[in-house]
Amino acid sequence: MARAAIDGGRPSRRREREGPARTTLPGGDRRGRDAARRHRSRRLPRRLGAVRVDHGRGHSRRGPRPHRRRARRGVAGRADRRLPRRARPVNRLAALLGTDRPVLLDGGMGTLLQDSGLADGDPGELWNLENPDAVRAAHAAYAEAGARVLTTNTFGGTRPRLDMHGLGGRLAEVNRNAARIARSVADEHGLLVAGDLGPTGELLAPLGTMTPDDAQALFAEQVEALVEGGIDLVLVETLSDLGEADAAIAAARAVAPDLPIVVTMSFDTNVRTMMGVRPADAVAHLSAGGVDAVGANCGRGPEEMELIAAEMVQARTGDVLLVAQSNAGLPQVVGDHFEYDATPADLAAHAERLAAIGIDLVGGCCGSTPAHIAAVRAALA
Ligand SMILES: [Zn+2]
To answer: Which residues form the Hcy-binding domain (predicted)?
Structure first.
């Protein structure tokens, strides 16, 4: 799915640009302009950034979980902060996807748009207005690679993020067009369209000033436009804060009560999100909140994603589906841009391991391309 497409996206191969000072977390600018936007997480507060995961360590994975799960959820889970626990008679996403598992999602969008000439510093969302053919071509490349779900080019489509580029006034148009573009490609190939929501770029109180209602309103206006453009499901991704996830879920539920909701978080800080959420916490909390699928995206590469996936599998309750969309490794600075170090074959082998432990939806995030998705498809065939 998309993750962020570039800026939606995903990765940027360009030199990282420092945005204007947008203070958010102490010592960090992850939520700042380019960091969040491009799914980077490099500038962590020192005390967090210093903690590194030992990539070489063998991890103990518990045994695979069979794919057919108990029909009823018995989650108890952790306290659900804002969302009322709600009975969901069936998993709406499972009903939409049918029985084949894992389902193949798409990969990064940003790099593809930059390769098509998106100017450095311009948001990928701008091209939903100004260069829809390039956005369409990126979706078509993923469709041809075998993705079953296309993710709209709207990762940075909330008002605060569009405002950074003077596009806030065109929010409805940006998001509606994005959904229509993805819809047109999906219809040619018989695929689904995920309407993509990324972090707002603002922090909830008390770290920031945004209230839960503010956050819900920001997500709601984006979802409304995406629904007008014809999405099949709502994908909220790269989140760090469960409170922000709850706001997005509430918005999706209010605006589009019939659409499946998928929420993925980025566990890029010692296998927790920047806000300290562990994979098992996310699965418990979001499952109890009634999402159809929960998972991890972005992060620090396939190896760490497999640790996260194993923890999510252990924490799964009921019929919630699990999602993993790893970056194509870690970005390495090469000359004046970033390159990601996982090859298509690397991501394909990774996807096979995810499938073996019972992950239901597999795709890529930053640095992944149609070539990666095609390799995953071949491996999972
Ligand atoms: Zn990413």
So the answer is: 91-380
298 annotated as ligand-binding: yes
How many domains does one find in the chain? 1
Q: Which domain holds residue 203?
A: 5-11+88-380
Counted residue by residue, the chain has a size of 381
- On whether residue 212 sits in a domain, the answer given is yes
How many Cα neighbours within 13 Å face the side chain of 269?
26
Taking the centre of ligand 1 as the mean of its atom positions, its distance from the CA of residue 7, in whole angstroms, is 10
> Residue 365, annotated ligand binder?
yes
Report the 10 Å Cβ neighbour count for 122.
16
Distance 360 CA to ligand 1 centre (A): 19
Query: What distance in angstroms lies between residue 301's CA and the mean position of ligand 1's atoms?
Result: 10
Q: What is the pLDDT of residues 112-158, one digit of tens each?
A: 999 899 998 999 999 999 999 999 999 999 999 999 999 999 999 99
Q: Specify the pLDDT at position 335.
A: 86
Amino acid residing at 99: T
CATH number of residue 352's parent domain? 3.20.20.330
Compute the distance from residue 3 Cα to the ligand 1 centre, in Å. 6
Distance from C-alpha of 167 to C-alpha of 358, rounded to nearest angstrom:
41
Question: Any known ligand binding at 304?
Answer: no
Tell me the pLDDT tens digit for each residue of 29-69: 333 333 334 444 333 333 333 333 322 223 233 333 444 44
In a domain, 64, yes or no: no
Residue for token pair 């190896």: 303
